[in-house]
Amino acid sequence: PPHRKNLDAVTTTGAGPAVDTLGAESTTCVVIASGTVSATVRFQGSPDGTNWYDLNVFTLTTAGASSYSTQTAHRFVRANVTARTNGTFTAWITCSGHVPGGWDVA
């Protein structure tokens, strides 16, 4: 999927569902924080949807949008709120570029 909401106004810790990028060569995560904010949100990648590693760590202390893009293919990605004192968080994941098999995503 080229554009998907991964966290939807969450107010607790926990990971969004795994997003299958189909191996897209570019993936971006945008985290939107609102309210009084104090949290850590990790943008994570995985080769298999089970074993996760950090692509970026957002340490959020103010409301607003933060983003990170990677130009390396990761089969699965997700946003994961790993620490939270305050705030509400929404995360969007966008995939683009050539994918294995010869087709492109928007």
Mean pLDDT: 90
Uncertain stretches: 102-106
Q: How far is it from the N-terminal to the C-terminal residue, by CA?
A: 9 Å
Strand content: over 45%
- How many helical stretches? 0
Question: Which structural class fits the helix and strand makeup?
Answer: mainly beta
- Major β-sheet profile: 8 strands, antiparallel
> How many β-strands, per DSSP?
8
Q: How much helix, percentage-wise, in residues?
A: under 10%
CA gyration radius, whole angstroms = 13 Å
Instruction: Return the string of H and E elements.
Output: EEEEEEEE
Shape: elongated
What do you see in this structure?
- The chain has strands at 3-10, 14-15, 19-20, 26-46, 53-60, 64-70, 76-99, 103-105.
- Strands 1, 2, 3, 4, 5, 6, 7 and 8 form an eight-stranded antiparallel beta sheet that branches.
- A hairpin with a 6-residue loop joins strand 4 (26-46) and strand 5.
- The protein is mainly β.
- The chain contains no helices and eight strands.
Features:
8-stranded antiparallel β-sheet, disordered C terminus, mainly beta, elongated, single chain, 71% strand
Q: What is the compact description of this entry?
A:
The protein is mainly beta and 106 residues long.
List strands and helices in order, with pairings:
Blueprint (H helix, E strand, L loop, with lengths): L2 E8 L3 E2 L3 E2 L5 E21 L6 E8 L3 E7 L5 E24 L3 E3 L1
